[in-house]
Amino acid sequence: xxxxxxxxxxxxxxxxxxxxxxxxxxxxxxxxxxxxxxxxxxxxxxxxxxxxxxxxxxxxxxxxxxxxxxxxxxxxxxxxxxxxxxxxxxxxxxxxxxxxxxxxxxxxxxxxxxxxxxxxxxxxxxxxxxxxxxxxxxxxxxxxxxxxxxxxxxxxxxxxxxxxxxxxxxxxxxxxxxxxxxxxxxxxxxxxxxxxxxxxxxxxxxxxxxxxxxxxxxxxxxxxxxxxxxxxxxxxxxxxxxxxxxxxxxxxxxxxxxxxxxxxxxxxxxxxxxxxxxxxxxxxxxxxxxxxxxxxxxxxxxxxxxxxxxxxxxxxxxxxxxxxxxxxxxxxxxxxxxxxxxxxxxxxxxxxxxxxxxxxxxxxxxxxxxxxxxxxxxxxxxxxxxxxxxxxxxxxxxxxxxxxxxxxxxxxxxxxxxxxxxxxxxxxxxxxxxxxxxxxxxxxxxxxxxxxxxxxxxxxxxxxxxxxxxxxxxxxxxxxxxxxxxxxxxxxxxxxxxxxxxxxxxxxxxxxxxxxxxxxxxxxxxxxxxxxxxxxxxxxxxxxxxxxxxxxxxxxxxxxxxxxxxxxxxxxxxxxxxxxxxxxxxxxxxxxxxxxxxxxxxxxxxxxxxx
Length: 611
Prior knowledge:
Elements: E1 7-11, E2 23-27, E3 30-34, H1 43-46, E4 62-64, H2 70-73, H3 76-81, E5 87-91, H4 94-119, H5 133-139, E6 143-146, E7 152-155, E8 158-164, E9 172-178, E10 181-185, E11 209-213, H6 230-241, E12 246-249, H7 255-268, E13 277-280, H8 282-293, E14 313-315, H9 319-325, E15 336-339, H10 349-356, E16 363-366, H11 375-380, E17 385-388, E18 391-394, E19 398-401, H12 411-419, E20 427-431, H13 435-449, E21 453-454, E22 461-463, E23 473-474, H14 481-489, E24 497-500, E25 505-507, E26 528-529, E27 563-569, H15 572-584, E28 587-588, E29 593-596, E30 601-608
Parallel strand pairs: 3-4, 4-5, 5-6, 10-11, 11-20, 12-15, 12-16, 13-14, 13-15, 16-19, 20-21, 23-29
Antiparallel strand pairs: 1-2, 1-22, 2-3, 7-8, 8-9, 9-10, 17-18, 24-25, 24-26, 27-30, 28-30, 29-30
């Protein structure tokens, strides 16, 4: 019989890349998506934002959000545009930030499409936004909030619980439980001590499987050598002295608040000159208001005036005010401009980059992680020109990186967090990191904690049934019945192996050579990792848990069919047909193969006549 509690996890984002966080849970008859992030950075990933979602969004019942950054929530309106009508769950403090982020994202996309059409520099005719303001407004009513540390009943035996992650306001780790299956998603984890917010929970909720970020898995945050953020202060002093201006690209959520807090501190201490400070990011200004309204989430001793005690502070809220800042006919003189986005991928900061990079008197100070393929990463890598608005802009300005701002946990922070999961998890999946950082963190976790660690690939599927551990064969989705039969026929070939969670391979058992023998017993293994697929998720099927007694077979096979393959939808009828074949005297030939056609699981089981 098919188990009513089959649970699988498909990595639809943040696997093989740092952005686009999306994890699809198939829990019995239900589908739950953890995070709905937008891909950013390299073009090959950004193009995935435009692809049809691998499963019908209307079939997803719930979306659970870890926090409000674009690479975790920015795809939500696109999901709604494609038919999602379920419930979106998040913490109380996350909701206002999600509203700000999504409205701003739609506005930016609409403006960029309009500018591209007017400028004629897009190959698309016409250029279109991924989603519109109207899509965002249809998304917002679907949102519901939850408190920290209280299980939420999602129905059908599924529960979810949010734990404080200490990354940005409202950020959380989420544990989802269904029957014996359970998986803990770290979300983006903060450092042990956030400069503004309450710290993350020291003891994460327990689960047999953990999906953990690895953004800084190959590095440690540097200790300040002298005054805090001296690289930034020194760059500001140099730039103002030579008559230039400073541009600080900063994420609107959390990073802008921290930058303003540090600029306030530097001004009070006399470490930087008194010059105008301009915040040119409507989203950042709204987010700052959200931080001011959530004083219960701030760490003790933080005062609201610490965020912006700058006499010459100026806020550019309107489009016209923003355009004036880059108008050569209206120079504002040496100043500090804080604008989003933090990696230079879009928004008003791109206009500032285009205007300021050609002047060697200016400086650009990067304040956080810069993903591969972003303009921020190109600047760090020493590119001499960047493409913006259909033209190439020379890079002559000074480029500086201040590494002290990151609110992502470093390698030691991450190891401390997963080490605190009790009892020890069966498998840890590392996501949200570049290849080098994920591999380095995997090696440390294996060496220091002795845990099984897997770095999954995009669209890879894994079973979340602890203790099952049986081998299975995985095939590509969308295959014809004949192709599925062929896949089942290969189940016992020499190359029919699977990858265990620890990276070793196991081999499927061969059938008993003697007539009347019992079928081979299932092979015990570590949690099994399914092969990556190109589109719809593949669902893994466990081999039968115990050998099935088979009556002695005599003579020729019924109908002369020594080999048969039974194919059908996963369910009672399929398993009844397999049982009937065993009753006739056939033996199981290897493991079942399974594929997912977007609406149901299709199974194929090979059987062979002994002798």
